[in-house]
Specification:
Elements: H1 2-39, H2 42-48, H3 56-77, H4 85-97, H5 99-109, H6 112-115, H7 117-139, H8 150-154, H9 159-222, H10 229-240, H11 252-278, H12 300-325, H13 329-349, H14 360-365
């Protein structure tokens, strides 16, 4: 019996040593894959795999799904008796053999010229999150032959929390297949539109506050006998610097009204682009060489350019708001012109539908 127990102990020690080696290998490979995503050239991946033979978003989805399933198995193995190093090793080896390299390949194959720069960068960002979180989960694997304690399992940064983070990261990558390029552009456009709306609300509120300040100043002028009138005058002077003055010789108020109307038109343009262009975008956009001049879909470069402009307009709107707060009439005019011209560029780039023809949107933006 003593010999049998000794054999079991030796086997357990060997299993733990094998587990340590596997974890060391896993950590090194994950780091290598992460480093490769930062340094690699997409052309290398495309040389070994025909660009048309693999859909990058499909591959990313399937790889992330497998990572999610394996992370669940791994999480259960380290918190439930009996602690079985060989089972853990098997799961890790399966992760290293296919899902993680597959995800890295998907990111490499997500060519900006085919999937847009926006989708390429989004997949890369979300994919890196998976590598980071799975690496954190691997570090939770105990090497003492015992399952994790309740604290190691349930703490804020415990194994269960880390497993949840892996799931969330995997779900984010899997989502990209379901929404596609069009869905990603819809989400981005709506986010940018909401930023413009927020700026509009702030400007409108600022304009209304200016009206209130004017009324308050008028009331203070009538109460000249107040013993605090000197201090009140100083306070009013300081407050008035942030609001439209009563005389408004720089015509700030008319500029505010005009700007709000124009910004409203821009938000309507965003909504129209979402409905008439992004939501009708083909599942997989044609490569950039399929030009609009040939009567085919708007090329990918145009799409990225449109999204960049849509992203830029909220920044211009913030600059416009600051110009109003500083009562700088010339800066207000410059930023509003820039804002409106950017909207015009969007309508020009997307004037035709994906078949190169005119439609309701084309008529609306004319």
């Amino acid at each position: 019996m003593v010999a049998a127990m000794s054999t079991v102990t030796n086997n357990n020690n060997k299993d733990l040593e094998a587990l340590k080696f596997t974890l060391s290998t896993a950590t090194a490979l994950i780091a290598q894959l992460q480093s490769g995503l930062s340094e690699s050239k997409r052309g290398d991946a495309l040389q070994t795999t025909s660009p048309g033979s693999v859909n990058a978003l499909d591959l990313a989805h399937d790889s992330a799904s497998l990572v999610r399933a394996h992370s669940t198995k791994l999480s259960l193995l380290i918190i439930n008796e009996p602690f079985t190093p060989t089972a853990i090793i098997k799961v890790i080896q399966e992760l290293l053999a296919s899902p993680l390299p597959g995800l890295a390949s998907a990111i490499e194959l997500c060519d900006p010229e085919k999937y847009t720069k926006a989708m390429s960068e989004e997949l890369k960002w979300r994919g890196k999150k998976i590598f980071s979180e799975i690496n954190s989960l691997v570090k939770h694997i105990p090497l003492d032959g015992k399952i994790l304690s309740n604290n190691q399992k349930n703490a804020g940064n415990g194994s269960l929390s880390t497993t949840g983070a892996v799931w969330e990261a995997c779900d984010a990558v899997m989502e990209l297949k379901s929404i596609g390029v069009g869905g990603l552009f819809v989400k981005r456009a709506e986010q940018y539109r909401d930023l413009i709306k927020d700026a509009m609300e702030e400007l409108q509120g600022w304009g209304e506050e200016s009206d209130d300040v004017d009324d308050a100043e008028y009331d203070d002028e009538e109460d000249e006998t107040n013993h605090n009138s000197a201090q009140a005058a100083v306070d009013n002077l300081l407050d008035s610097q942030a609001h439209i003055p009563a005389d408004d010789h720089d015509k700030i108020r008319p500029r505010l009204d005009t700007s709000l109307r124009r910004l409203k038109l821009i938000t309507l343009l965003y909504q129209a682009v979402v409905k008439r262009r992004f939501k009708t975008l083909p599942p997989l956009v044609r490569p950039a060489e399929d030009s609009k001049a040939k009567g085919e879909s708007v090329n990918v470069v145009y799409l990225d350019k449109v999204l960049n402009i849509m992203k830029k307009i909220p920044d211009i709107t913030d600059e416009l708001a600051n110009a109003f707060y500083e009562l700088d009439a010339s800066e207000i005019d410059a930023r509003m012109d820039e804002c409106f011209f950017s909207g015009f560029m969007i309508s020009e780039l997307l004037s035709d539908n994906w078949e190169g023809k005119k439609d309701e949107f084309s008529t609306w933006v004319c």
